[in-house]
Write a structure and sequence with these properties.
Elements lengths: L1 E3 L5 E2 L14 E3 H70 L6 H4 L11 E7 L4 E7 L8 E6 L6 E5 L4 E2 L9
Antiparallel strand pairs: 1-2, 1-3, 4-5, 5-6, 6-7, 7-8
């Protein structure tokens, strides 16, 4: 007894090679059953593997994605530090030459190495003895902004408000505090 692998028609003629209904080659009934069992077994194995792997992938993504976003935000914050350091050095050079600080970036000779992508910057205050430079930007697309500043005394950029962890003192970036 032979069976069509396409339409399932049973042919009792032992000499028949092709199905009369659809023209597909016939296989022995036992051989057909083994192929079907093999296909079902493969499909079950595939489903079991998927059922085990998908939760692991989801757990990995749940751990990795937030860590990646924090790392990405920290790398964006490097731009603030570079801007502040550049303006600070230009202000100190201007102070050595002129004996005072200035709020004019062109006057102190500052030009950024490249156009800032994430931050705006401004010299908030400058007189004969003090200078305050501030940069701000929204790096994680929420309502809070990241604020950094440097003064003539600090010599290192100081974070006023951290936009990533939303900690610090939220202030207007263009006003003195």
């Amino acid at each position: 007894m032979k069976k069509c692998s396409k339409c399932g028609m049973v042919v009792n003629d032992p000499n028949a090679r092709f199905c009369e209904k659809c023209g597909v080659a016939l296989v022995d009934s036992d051989e057909y059953t083994e192929k079907q069992k093999s296909k079902t077994s493969c499909f079950r194995t595939f489903l079991i593997i998927c059922a085990v792997l998908i939760p692991f992938i989801a757990i990995y993504a749940a751990i990795a994605i937030p860590n990646f976003l924090k790392f990405q935000a920290k790398s964006k914050q490097l731009e603030a530090r570079h801007i502040l350091t550049g303006i600070y050095e230009a202000e100190l050079n201007f102070y050595v030459k002129e004996g005072k600080f200035s709020t004019d970036l062109d006057e102190i000779g500052y030009a950024p190495a490249s156009t800032p992508k994430y931050y705006q910057y401004k010299i908030i205050h400058a007189d004969e003895t003090t200078s305050i430079v501030r940069v701000w930007g929204n790096i994680d697309r929420d309502d809070n902004i990241d604020i950094w500043e440097i003064t003539e005394n600090a010599r290192m950029p100081v974070r006023i408000y951290d936009d990533v962890s939303d900690t610090g003192k939220q202030i207007d970036p263009l006003q003195l505090r």
